[in-house]
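Hi support team,

I'm opening this ticket because the web form for multi-chain structure prediction keeps timing out on my end. I have pasted the exact lines I submitted so you can reproduce it. The total is 1472 residues across four entries, so I didn't expect it to be a heavy job. Is there a limit I'm missing, or should I split the entries? Thanks in advance, R.K.
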Amino acid sequence: MSHNSFGHLFRVTTFGESHGPAIGCVVDGTPPGLALDEAALQRDLDRRRPGQSRHTTQRREPDAARILSGVFEGRTTGTPIAVLIENTDQRSKDYSEIAAKYRPGHADYTYDAKYGLRDYRGGGRSSARETATRVAAGAIARAVLGPAVIVRAALVQVGGDRLEVPREAWDWDEVGRNPFFCPDAATAARWGDLMDAVRKAGSSVGAVVQVEAEGVPPGWGAPLYGKLDQDLCAALMSINAVKGVEIGAGFAAAALSGEDNADEMRPGPDGGPPVFTNNHAGGILGGISTGQTVVARMAVKPTSSILTPRRTVTRDGAASEIVTKGRHDPCVGIRAVPVAEAMMACVLADHKLRHRGQCGADGGEAPP
Amino acid sequence: MSHNSFGHLFRVTTFGESHGPAIGCVVDGTPPGLALDEAALQRDLDRRRPGQSRHTTQRREPDAARILSGVFEGRTTGTPIAVLIENTDQRSKDYSEIAAKYRPGHADYTYDAKYGLRDYRGGGRSSARETATRVAAGAIARAVLGPAVIVRAALVQVGGDRLEVPREAWDWDEVGRNPFFCPDAATAARWGDLMDAVRKAGSSVGAVVQVEAEGVPPGWGAPLYGKLDQDLCAALMSINAVKGVEIGAGFAAAALSGEDNADEMRPGPDGGPPVFTNNHAGGILGGISTGQTVVARMAVKPTSSILTPRRTVTRDGAASEIVTKGRHDPCVGIRAVPVAEAMMACVLADHKLRHRGQCGADGGEAPP
Amino acid sequence: MSHNSFGHLFRVTTFGESHGPAIGCVVDGTPPGLALDEAALQRDLDRRRPGQSRHTTQRREPDAARILSGVFEGRTTGTPIAVLIENTDQRSKDYSEIAAKYRPGHADYTYDAKYGLRDYRGGGRSSARETATRVAAGAIARAVLGPAVIVRAALVQVGGDRLEVPREAWDWDEVGRNPFFCPDAATAARWGDLMDAVRKAGSSVGAVVQVEAEGVPPGWGAPLYGKLDQDLCAALMSINAVKGVEIGAGFAAAALSGEDNADEMRPGPDGGPPVFTNNHAGGILGGISTGQTVVARMAVKPTSSILTPRRTVTRDGAASEIVTKGRHDPCVGIRAVPVAEAMMACVLADHKLRHRGQCGADGGEAPP
Amino acid sequence: MSHNSFGHLFRVTTFGESHGPAIGCVVDGTPPGLALDEAALQRDLDRRRPGQSRHTTQRREPDAARILSGVFEGRTTGTPIAVLIENTDQRSKDYSEIAAKYRPGHADYTYDAKYGLRDYRGGGRSSARETATRVAAGAIARAVLGPAVIVRAALVQVGGDRLEVPREAWDWDEVGRNPFFCPDAATAARWGDLMDAVRKAGSSVGAVVQVEAEGVPPGWGAPLYGKLDQDLCAALMSINAVKGVEIGAGFAAAALSGEDNADEMRPGPDGGPPVFTNNHAGGILGGISTGQTVVARMAVKPTSSILTPRRTVTRDGAASEIVTKGRHDPCVGIRAVPVAEAMMACVLADHKLRHRGQCGADGGEAPP
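Hello R.K., no limit was hit. The queue was backed up. Here is the completed structure from your submission:
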């Protein structure tokens, strides 16, 4: 048990505070012989990096990932891969207000309640900065999954404004072109206006992220407490500010009839595995992948750090007010998109190895 | 790692198939000296038991729980508590159709894909029957939590019909009186009509369950991958047919502004801990309990077993059709209510012990 | 984490007290499709069963193992296998002395110190009776290992009397013929005389068990904290009354020179894997199997329950004396032989699956 | 599960290769509020450091530990503590021989067999260099244990030459003064002569280390698979070159009678806890601490790297010979002394927290 680790056979441990010397992670269980270098990590890290549009925080951090172990001559060795990201943009500033008062919606109060003290500089361990290490781990997970499994995410709602383009009309290339990871250019433009208004008002908004995996073969996941959807939900819920997670039809399934919700099965082409007429299940039945696209969504709450004063209390329990100044994302959901991908990749990598461990590569096992 | 266990210091392992000789669980890590007997387990089991109204399956199983170990002279000893529930109502019937064909929405296909074989009798391990062992474990968890922490759940939506009574007007006594665990008698009556129509149509509907815990002190949960909300979501998502989970405002938070979503803090009465003006957070900030009521909701999909024929394939890949006969709950969400309570109780018991392990009873620690 | 579980991918959880209704285990992670039935478990259980010679306790327990789950039509399904062994020979007797006084060398005092109470009937959870469940789990582990891996153990020392027959002259068939699991008939006869004297004197003696596995391929085990020898030592040390464990040359290695201790390598026959000139390493280098026979030994202390009075204290701290009456093994090391086999089989089964999970069946992995 | 982690509530994950950029560890679960700084780590690291006498390798590495996270203003925060030790003395040298041939007694062959490739520079991950990170973790564990628990180790055998001074005549101050961690000056001098001869001969010898903990209260450890002795044995066996571990009387207990092995109990002074007349048990009964001194010993094999040529094979399976040149400890057991202390400290810290988690500070628990 470790409060700062997740996964079993592909196991990630992260460490570090927002304003300490460095953050990082140790990834244990990576199979040997996989091609891996720092550039692969950097590609994903750059997508999460702040300061890339006017819609995210203007903090500038190169987020340069350094591999300290576990890779030799460009290949993984099977030993733990440690990744270090130095903290470079730690502005020396006055933290006395945040040290003395609890910011509503932040972890300030609960860390103090639990531990009796906290590293208040920039939110310490509870800062979203830690998600950079998840993205690094996710890049390693992609190497484990190989090219056959594609994990990608998109933003599908900003504040109350939902993407209305149907799933089959999404343009995944567009996701890489606009600052919202939005699969539709027109919607992205609309969200740009919305965000400008939010920023001007000193306010913030929430968002919904959809993350998918194509190419997952049937059989990953394990009943009853190693379910693929269970682990996926836990992984997404562990991301800062996430308040809800759903698989496939999700909450909407509650309102469907059994007939409408059924994903009927048909013989697959060329004698291959069966196909499904629909995917309300989100690619998972009984906790095990069906071979369809795995689909999850997560709801991200509006950024708690806003310019409007909020009532709060001091560490000593006195009534007070607080305005969170500084450089904050008015919609943390945007930069959560590559983080959601990373978490899904990590969960899938873990289950790939777990399935192989228990069932061999193809499921089942010849009797001894 | 165990695919059939959950929790860390309070750890539950379940076993058993729907039509095998018995199902059961082993609960490890229960503190010693707690009063516990079979009657305490039976009270919760009886709430989940089938056949108690016309709205649930007419299968009759006494679900009598027998404690095999870990309790001596009415008190827990600190050793593992094994609970056994014999399967008594295993009708000898013809399983040849379910053996040969995949029921859409069930785990039949994925179990076969993963394991190469499956115990098809009554769904085997994937049957909701397993949740009886969770309820037994939950009763033990309640003993760990003690009377100060109250865990209870209610149904808040059946099909598309939501409970409209505001939370503060709920009648928890009513929850025990109607067959829907509904905190409002009028709504329960309406749902009764709705369910009659569903049953008559040979159809099924989904539901949404809300589960809450009062009396959780601040400080339970642990960043970053032992978050209370993360573990809670995983536990709820592991329940059969659950497709979505949310904490506090959940998905609705995405559409709120930062101002509206903020739970402001005020000095507590009599110099006690601070109070919050609202509870969008659902009692959890940064993965750690705030001292407010912990609030989660889960979406349950409509029962997959319906009387309307659905297209499917046989094990050999041939096109076919299937009608799931037999005694099934037309809304599995109803009997999921006590299961949701049990899972929340287990997660909280685990975190109570984990918090005490790392931080002592009160958080913090005197320096050595 | 579970105090009553061991293993990772092949994970065993045991429960039960000596004089409760039953003891048992849940084995999680068994690959699907393996042939398994109760007879396979019974074969190993019968070797551990008490009352089979005058040298072991005369308690009579059929130790009939019942499989409750995880096996369908004679094959494992991949779901947890629960095994139940009812306690039948619980003589109703007077436990007041053992309840009130601490037996030296027993866990009575430490259980009370830890838990504040204990199930004192027959030693409760600390009774060697629990090892029956390990033997059942070991039989399942053998199914996982298949016929290519042979795990077997022998007694090599009783009290101060060591087996002097060199390893290459052992007769494994003889192990099954004498009551000491001794690979030499003459030595067994000598030990019979020694044990008669010990029993007559109301005394007890210790023993040393050697356990071996042939057919383990190179590559099982994992640096640095999943080492095969580490897990093996932990598993053997968890057996009641074991006070020391060693691998290969063990403690004797400390006195060897580097030259003498070196297991030199030579090209294998027919271009096969290399062979070693010796096996001081006990088949493990760097925590990973070499392909040689895995060799471990464990020291078992003399039975603490003896007929000679020993000084002790009561629960209330008063000076007292105690004589442990009842039916006890004068040398618990004898019946520990099949238990040692079971523990080694479980550890190897776990590492077989773990190796396959991380490295595939053959080690290494094609780059993606 | 993680191959490179140990412990549960106090959990250590290590990473790094001998000749990579750095080695390090992440310690998760440290209680908050403990005084800790880099100097505390350095004190223990300096005791393990090479090049401090002519009897250890002349490699020079400052082994400067840098704390990257988890400590704020001189106190632990409860978040993971990452420690980084840069590798500075990586001589650029020719590794072609070690890359192409397997050194007998080393992990070269097994790493290749398992992973298909290995970082051969200086032994990579299998180098004893990794033990520096264990010592750093051990220093953090000491902070968790506080001043009431004293963990210390001594060398009690070098090659075939045992320390003959009885335990009660040991001089712990002398341990810090001679290069052998020997509690007797005369023996240390004798070992100095022995080691000079060994070094001159280009040979190596093994050793035995005794490690003890005073001040452990009764009640730490947990039956049946979280036994204190089991975890201790696993932790010591995980140290490079260790081939045997024993607790208390250990292997010698096998030759004792039940009467002689019994640690009788007497009323404690001033109504305090009972005292024992002896400590054959090594401070542990039934896997739980008794309150006596916890005593363990481990056997370290002779260094495999010797100047005498040994026969081996190449990666391609051809017959060859190898002489391990370079700077090696002729007795790795010497520098293993502080490592043994560190491992025992880590295990005890873990069990302190685990005991508190399950049983509260004092064992037992008031009924709810």
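A quick check on our side: Chain D has one domain: 5-359. Let us know if the file doesn't open in your viewer.
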